[in-house]
Design a protein that fits this description.
Layout (H helix, E strand, L loop, with lengths): L9 E4 L3 E7 L5 H15 L14 H4 L6 E7 L2 E10 L7 E9 L8 H15 L4 E7 L3 H9 L3 E3 L10 E7 L6 H4 L3
Parallel strand pairs: 5-6
Antiparallel strand pairs: 1-2, 2-3, 3-4, 4-5, 6-8, 7-8
C-alpha cells in the first residue's frame, strides 16, 4: 500500500466509511489544531503543549526538508494525524515521529498502525537510520504498541527535560520483524 502520495490509499471499512491517508494541505491547519487540542484536553496534557509553535501552521511546519505530515480522514473529515521531522540533535541520521493523534472514538480499529507504517516508510525513503518518539509515560497502552513496532525505551530527556515523558528509538535499517507483527 503506497501511503506517501497526496492522493493516498482509500481503505474501505464497510462499517465506518472510507478512510484515506493523505499529505497535509494548507486548508487542514485549523481542523488539525482542533483535533490536537481535543486530544490534549482528553489526555490532560501539560501546559507546555499549548505553546507549541507548530500548532497553528502544521502545513508550513512540515514542509521543511526531510519532513512530512499526513492526515487520516474518514469521509473527508480529519480524524488522525502523524508526521516526521529531523531530530533536533542528530539531523542527518535521526528523525522524530511527531503529532501522532487519533480522535478517541476512532481508536482501536488499526488505523494507527497504518499511520505509523506510512511514517516509517517515508523515514526510510528519506534515508533516516533512526526514528525517535516521545510519549507520555502514563499512556501505557501506547508504550506497548510502540514496543511491538520495534521502538525501544531510551533515557529520558533527549530533547525535553520533562520527567513525565519517555523517549523511544527505532533502528530503521533492520526491520525484518515488522512483517509479521500485525498477524500475531
Amino acid at each position: 500500500m503506497n501511503t506517501t502520495e497526496v492522493s493516498g490509499p482509500i481503505i474501505n471499512y464497510k462499517r465506518f466509511g472510507k478512510f484515506k491517508i493523505r499529505h497535509v494541505l494548507p486548508s487542514d491547519n485549523e481542523p488539525i489544531k482542533k483535533l490536537i487540542l481535543e486530544v490534549w484536553r482528553e489526555l490532560k496534557a501539560d501546559k507546555h503543549h499549548l505553546s507549541d509553535p507548530e500548532l497553528d501552521n502544521m502545513f508550513e511546519a512540515y514542509h521543511e526538508e526531510k519532513s512530512a505530515f499526513w492526515v487520516l480522514t474518514v469521509n473527508d473529515k480529519i480524524i488522525g494525524t502523524i508526521g516526521i521531522q529531523p531530530l533536533r540533535t542528530n539531523r542527518q541520521i535521526g528523525c522524530e515521529l511527531k503529532k501522532f493523534y487519533i480522535k478517541k472514538s476512532w481508536r482501536g480499529f488499526g488505523m494507527g498502525w497504518e499511520l505509523i507504517e506510512c511514517c516509517l516508510a517515508k523515514a526510510r525513503e528519506l534515508k533516516y537510520q533512526e526514528c525517535y518518539l516521545e510519549t507520555d509515560s502514563s499512556l501505557k497502552r501506547a508504550g506497548k504498541i510502540y514496543e511491538r513496532l520495534g521502538f525501544v525505551p531510551i533515557a529520558e530527556g533527549v530533547a525535553l527535560p520533562f520527567t513525565k515523558y519517555r523517549w523511544h528509538k527505532k533502528n530503521l535499517i533492520n526491520h525484518d520483524h515488522e512483517k509479521n507483527f500485525k498477524n500475531e
